[in-house]
Specification:
Strand content of chain A: 25-35%
Strand order of the largest sheet of chain A: 9-11-6-12-10-13-14
Oligomer: homodimer
Helix content of chain A: 25-40%
């Protein structure tokens, strides 16, 4: 184990002139945020990723992490730290302090400090105005599909020799593999591949750090937030913070490839997964009317912000109010 | 509940020129760090106190807190937040962010950021040199006695109307109260009063923030650390970090009033509680040979640092090696 206890306190270096530290905290609880038997190295990687996704939403450069880990006696702390330190190294993050204790289930909480340089305008939720365009990175619903596949028996199996969680494959229960292969008889591999991508997206989300930085560097009035609880829960938060309403287009919400087949196998509703599935760890942002997202960043325009408090969604059946709600870690689901 | 989710990230203000942020993290787990049925308002106060004690050991001024709280469905979040916010207000701390989730048992992790102004030298463990004198604030063993009294059936009962955990009394099982009253027949109240002080010391430690600041302001070469795991566990850490040994005097270790009677009722060993009981949340520090602690700060000189790696303790039976060990939150006790 790294010596997290080198001192009671880590004194962060003085930020460069005009720079500021941005701080976020997020937890991963076994059996709540991830399968209870998930490889501790992957738990650690996911823990860092969900915190990085918060920093991405403000446009900060990740720098220092502080860990509080409580785990059962038999927990593989070694794999956890290998995974965490490897992932930290990838992102230039130094593990600067922490606290260890013993509990069942395992609870890992990470505090992440990132630097906002003087010439960068930190993004926040309250900056949107009526007339802004509304955007999202990547796709929606894929992580929630991955969670459902894990609930249905898919498992992440480490194949690494470094024990740091970098390499793993998905093990499918035969019955689930058969159903996935049968979803598109003309291309049996396609749905299985989409399912594997969904599990990977769920367990190791890719935070939009580069895009967050780029948007913050533009110096424009840009509202942004991390999509962690699902669009139907998070968009109302951005709208309330900014004092705006929204009108979004269900057809413009970006789905991953082969999503329809995956949704069919899961017996789920496409729009339900996309709107309320949660844990997308994607960037939701609003641009001034004359603004455009960086080219090549994989952003989709999903709608516009309005000057009424309502949030509405346009489907083939017409315009209806968006029902607020999403993936709720506090629900007793 | 306060809106912890105002943004994904809290951007700390730029520190004053030359100032730096000091960061620490500590958890409170129900049934591990405190009785499982402890009033959530007291849990919150204890959570802040143990983190403040870490900041005290570096000489930082507490400023911002970030909470991760996972608790069962029936948990009284309202009392927890009332206690936390009241205690934060007392210490000038702003609750700046957090994350809520659901688990059994309740796990609360606080990250605390404090400011080290430019003209203050942050204290750390590695600054001690042979010939330094070794000091501690307040008394040792009292918190551990309080923990044993709680294990023996003492309970903290809130009596407050504000529901913020500020006012509470100790409820004693009749048999334990009788034994405490009988410990000193000439003064039956004395041991009971000492027992109540021990429970209070354990549940609501008083971090040595003022002393830590004063020591750091001296600008001298001062080693310091928070005594959280017991002197027999923490002193070796300070010695290793500084590359020194130590010789301490068992008789000079400060005990609280009526400690002998309390120890007798608990069937404990005086020196064992003082050395390994843990959770003292007191400041252990070493001063250069010509240094003296601030007058009136209640500091006791317990020994000296040496140029050998050994840590020895002088008792009435002579000088013997200090057995390393203490209160271990990772033990399966």
């Amino acid at each position: 184990l790294p010596d997290l206890l080198g001192d009671d306190v880590a004194v962060l270096p003085e930020p460069p002139p005009g720079g500021r530290w941005a701080v976020t905290v997020d937890s991963q609880i076994a059996g709540v945020h991830h399968p209870a038997d998930l490889d501790p190295a992957l738990v650690a990687r996911r823990l860092l990723a969900v915190n990085l996704s918060d920093l991405a939403a403000t446009g900060a450069d990740p720098a220092y992490a502080f860990l509080a880990l409580s785990a059962p006696p038999a927990y593989d702390h070694r794999r956890f730290f290998r995974g965490l330190l490897a992932a930290c190294a990838t992102h230039g993050v130094t593990l600067a302090g922490g606290d260890l204790a013993r509990t069942e289930p395992a609870v890992a909480t990470l505090t992440l400090a990132g630097l906002v340089p003087a010439d960068r305008h930190p993004l926040h939720r309250g900056a949107a105005r009526p007339g802004d365009t509304l955007w999202v990175t990547g796709t929606l619903g894929e992580s929630a599909a991955g969670r459902r596949l894990l609930s249905a028996g898919a498992r992440a199996i480490p194949v690494d020799t470094d024990e740091d969680g970098a390499a793993w494959e998905v093990d499918w229960p035969p019955e689930l593999a058969d159903r996935l292969a049968a979803a598109d008889p003309t291309n049996p591999e396609a749905t299985l591949a989409a399912a594997e991508r969904a599990v990977r997206r769920h367990l190791t989300p890719q935070p939009a750090l580069g895009l967050g930085r780029t948007l913050a560097d533009l110096g424009l009035r840009i509202a942004a937030m991390d999509l962690s609880d699902g669009l139907a829960a998070d968009l109302p938060r951005l709208c309330r913070a900014s004092g705006v309403g929204a009108e979004i287009d269900a057809g413009a919400l970006p789905r991953p490839a082969e999503f329809a087949a995956l949704v069919a196998v899961l017996g789920a509703d496409d729009l339900d997964l996309v709107l309320t599935g949660g844990e997308d760890y994607a960037l939701l942002f609003a641009l001034p009317p004359d603004g455009a997202p960086p080219a090549g960043a994989g952003c989709s325009r999903m709608g516009d912000l309005t000057d009424t408090p309502e949030i509405q969604i346009r489907t083939s059946a017409g315009l209806r109010p968006l029902v607020e709600g999403g993936w709720d870690h506090l629900s007793s689901e």
